[in-house]
Design goal:
Elements lengths: L1 H26 L4 E8 L6 E10 L2 H6 L11 E11 L3 E2 L7 E7 L2 E9 L11 E2 L5 E8 L2 H4 L7 E5 L1
Parallel strand pairs: 2-3
Antiparallel strand pairs: 1-2, 1-9, 3-8, 4-7, 5-6, 5-8
Length: 160
């Protein structure tokens, strides 16, 4: 009996520690968090102040917010691209609707409101594109654009 304990106890401990390590790694956020503000360009009054996760790699941009059940009111995801272009987004794997804010430089250039999740569109993911070239996209919970009176021409500021 002790012979088996000496053999299997180290194996059991390694498996247990490996599982604990993987669990802790999953709890660590995959995304860098930044604070942002959306401002009126004339008055510089803040319309929205919140925290966003940064999607700045192909893997992070591909995953986006898919698979999540919800998004807090002042939270979102900011997608960053190396050069301006007309990037398309789709709602595959999404569980809730979004407002999509299209940004070039630090200026909002287009807005797509209340883009529905596949469960509300017969299972087919909606594909959405901006009307002009962009280098950033901010995804917020549907209704945020109306609630915070976000408009084309507003400015986005990333806080350090």
């Amino acid at each position: 009996m002790i012979k088996y304990l000496i053999i299997f106890l180290p194996i059991f401990i390694v498996i247990l520690l490996g599982g604990l390590f993987l669990t802790i790694k999953k709890l660590k956020p995959d995304y860098e968090i930044l604070k942002i503000e959306i401002l009126n360009p004339v008055t510089q009054l803040v319309k929205l102040r919140g925290e966003v996760e940064i999607a700045d790699t192909i893997l992070k941009r591909t995953k986006g917010l898919s698979g999540r059940e919800s998004l807090a009111e002042n939270q979102g995801m900011l997608f960053l691209f190396a050069k301006p272009s007309k990037y398309s987004f789709w709602m595959a794997g999404m569980n809730f609707p979004l407002d999509i804010i299209w940004i070039n430089g630090n200026k909002i250039v287009d807005i797509s409101k209340n883009i529905q999740a596949p469960k509300n569109t017969g299972g087919l993911p909606v594909i959405i594109s901006p009307s002009t070239k962009i280098d950033k996209v901010l995804e917020l919970s549907a209704g945020a654009v109306e609630k915070f009176n976000i408009k084309i021409g507003d400015e986005i500021k990333i806080l350090e």
